[in-house]
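[audit] Reproducing an earlier prediction to check determinism. Same input, same settings, fresh worker. If the tokens differ from the archived copy the diff job will pick it up downstream; this log only records the rerun itself.
[audit] input (146 residues):
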Amino acid sequence: MRPDEGHDFADFADEVLEFLGKRLGDLTYWEHGAADVPTGRQSACVDHAHLHIVAGHLPLSTPPERVAHSGLRQALTWLADSEGSNPYLLMGHTSGPCFTGHDVGLSQYYRREWAKIVGRDDEWDYLLSNTPDVTRRTIESILLQR
């Protein structure tokens, strides 16, 4: 579907979560949203947000001062309609709610939490822990499960 036919990021995210969910089961996802004009420390990697998706229902903590949404689409809609200039955290599971809340100001907060949970504490920073073989095996395993 072309963008002018109503296809937006929420549609794309729904399609990706469905595709990956069929192959990997329950998924955990998160996003570190940056402020339009940074005024201090943020969790976002540079100056933009992107969605991280990992297999499994990981016990990540919910963001501070959280708002619960029924799913990712509803969270994205809420974020778009709310004051969009503040940094935020978003975290959810495909089998449950999605939460949005205040940023904690710790660089790559949820990636750090993910790394601890999976026993790879020092591998939260992709620049320092480049593992192309893991990336390749992941892509191959997803594509081979058609």
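[audit] rerun output stored. Observation attached for the diff report: The chain has four helices and five strands.
[audit] end
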